[in-house]
Amino acid sequence: MKILKFILISLVVFLLLRVVFFTNFWKNLEHKVHDVFFMMRGEKEISDNVVIVEIGDDTFNTLNEQWPFPREYHAKLIENLEKAGASQIIFDIEFTERTNINSDSKLASAIAKYDNIILSGKLIRTEYNNSVREQLLSPISILTQAGALWGTVNISSDPDGFVRRYELFQKRSNEVKLSIGVMALAKFYRLDIDSEEIQNHTKFFRIGSNNIPKVTAKSSLINYFGPPRTFSTYDFADVIDDSTFTTDFEKELDTNLDQFYNLAENFKNKIVLVGLTAIEFHDTHHTPFFSANSQLMPGVEIHANFIETALRKAYLSEFPFLASLLIFFVLTILIFALNYLVRPSISVFIDLALILAYILFSYFIFTKQMLLIPVLEIPLMIIVVYIISLIMQYVNTVKERKFIKQAFGQYIAPELVEELIKDPKKLEYGGVQKDVSVLYCDIVSFTPYTESHTPKETVDILREYLTEMVKIIRDNKGTLDKFVGDEIVAIFGAPVELEDHAYLACKTAFEMREKMTLLQNKWEDENKDPFEIGIGINSGLVTVGNLGSEQIFDYTAIGDNMNAGARIEALTRIYDTKNNIIISESTYEKTKDRIEAEFIDEATVKGKKTLIRIYELLQIHRANEL
Description:
Number of strands: 26
Largest sheet: 8 strands, mixed
Shape: elongated
Oligomer: single chain
Number of helices: 22
Number of domains: 3
């Protein structure tokens, strides 16, 4: 029976986690981990078979030309690269519009001389009347009639905007157009484009003896060799600057530098990619190395990375999906059995060791076998199984006790007992994110106060104080979250949503301050020692709901913004303010038309890496209340 129970519970965990793993949110997390692996691995040595000629900001400064450049410039580039002995010249520049017949003819003439030039086009998709129209945009006819080969340059990104896959071809109806990267490989292997040695299979794309593993129906993973400018890159202006060409810069110097003479050797027997790198052309993309230096990679270098990957057959591949499902399910059963049978105080260390070992293993096979496996799935499964096992072990220790109506009072917050009896579904553990304002109110130096007064005096004055404060909170539609000793925590905007929750929190704080002044005067008249309070308010997203333990379910809130509210309240001990009320910038922005507040400082808050702007609440405008 135990084995059956392990299998059934493991099956439920398996199915629930599979639903999570199919979401874009989870896929993006996995992508980010693989990006970290790229950065940990660092740059890989390249073969130097591929070089780039860029049209960047320096190019425009040197030539003093606007885009598009005269087509004869590109013709000059072709002639110079051919003289230098380039094996291929690939343009990641779309000559899809006519300029003037003279310039276009000069480029066509240059192309007609050679058979190692590849131009670019793309598949255009437009939505019209709820339908998608597709068009293959090719180079102008005068260039294709000159015998120019061309391929597509479409670049696709993952849901998070990062480019990790390379489009091998584009398909429109029955027409298939290879990408410039695949065209370059075909040229490298001296294959005809229509050759039967170029075949598209379900799992891979074959070019001669080179099988490119596919990750989608038409794309392959890119094994990036490094961040932008890993490949040798030369300026377009320098390559066309030979003894017969004078740049605008040379005209200013009244000389001819002939930059190409010094560069020619760098292009011999090389695949030369020509592309735009200037930011203004928006052909730059996020890649796995972006987080290392915050630099976007030009599209032309993405093509270069693919070509280098294919020439070296250094392909990344993904672990077979069905095999991973089977392994995941079996591991779920085994790890659940381990956690169920071993004491939690011991199994937690075993689980942590397994998680660490699995992550290290994932990185090892990425670097050594160029194999990508899901990195976070098994660690999450281990955590979930540990929690479930922990809960089950607890349930087993108390299942002999009478878990009836009276027993709920021992494990559940009293104010929820009746409601839970009416709706048992509210026992479910979990919460939702809501935009709320949180108010923290704490007594200043309460510990010394209790030490200098009898317990009865302390309890009596605290009861009077808390009663008045809680009344103000409830009168302003606030929810009393909890008492933490003498501290009051209140939420505005949950469980009932309030559009003006930030204002109501400020109003509550101000009224608490007013009431506190009255109480202080009253206590002095009664010969009682008064005390002071500090109030902090913060607004933002928090997780709210039944977030207690399995023993006690309590409507509460957690999250970074809750913690920030507590830290802001603590600042009332540091900053001298009129009312001892400090609010965050997020609260101020929501209420600035209905309150009077004064900027205090950009303060350091524990748990926050950045400074936050804080304000002193001076007054509220009750006349503006709805």
